[in-house]
Amino acid sequence: MNTDFINLTTANLANEHLCCIIRSKKSHQGIDAKRKWLSDRLNEGHTFRKLNEKATVFIEYAPLETAWIPIIGDNYYYIYCLWVLGAHKGKGYGKSLMEYCIADAKEKGKSGICMLGAKKQKAWLSDQSFAKNFGFEVVDTTDNGYELLVLSFDGTIPKFAPNVKNQGIESKELTIYYDMQCPYIYQNIEIIKQYCKMNDVPLSLIQVDTLQKAKELPCVFNNWGVFYKGTFETVNLLDVAYLERILKK
Fold first, then answer.
1. Which architecture does CATH list for 164-247?
2. Would you identify the CATH topology of the domain 5-161?
3. Which tens digit of pLDDT belongs to each residue from 145-201?
4. C-alpha distances in angstroms, 238 versus 59, 66, 101, 140, 191?
5. What pTM value is reported for the model?
């Protein structure tokens, strides 16, 4: 097991691989957008720790107070992503990354760590069963099966913001809230825009570009949230097949 990990900083951000599956040698707008988003977050205590090679082995977390998600709590870390893919799976990398986050939280006097999960594992959310092996527990839920997982050190617990529980908006057209935290978002938006244009599907894209907007969102959110006919559908990025299933409802 390679134990050479590094943390991204404002000094090395421009030259480091961002650990997702995108392997473009040319400038990639999704990756460029991710770098810009990160450059504004790193000074807020955001942590991106990765294996020091071109691999999908990383953890990304931030102080809950400055994390772009509608969760209320004090003195917590929020885990956006913890991914280990390909040949690196099963070698202890995920355990090492989670242990680093826990140790970092304790060293900085945090009250605990939280993350978004669901009763049924979502493709674009980190593995909640893995987190539960470290003592994470469900402390809050939504009516459509999303869960807030928490590892508390002092007995305090965060919770979903009240606006999350609404799970509805006035607009009936396909509506997507997004930020640029994930490199895949840019290209996913382009796919959806093209499909909706070709099929005359009304589409509203709402970029979440401030912390306040993120905290006030009407749904659970990790970087993406989809509504249709006024009802919240998913935090998963959409391929055409998934989009068509939603539109048939």
1. 3-Layer(aba) Sandwich (3.40)
2. Aminopeptidase (3.40.630)
3. 899 999 999 999 999 999 998 889 999 999 999 999 999 999 899 999 999 999 999
4. 23, 27, 30, 26, 9
5. 0.93
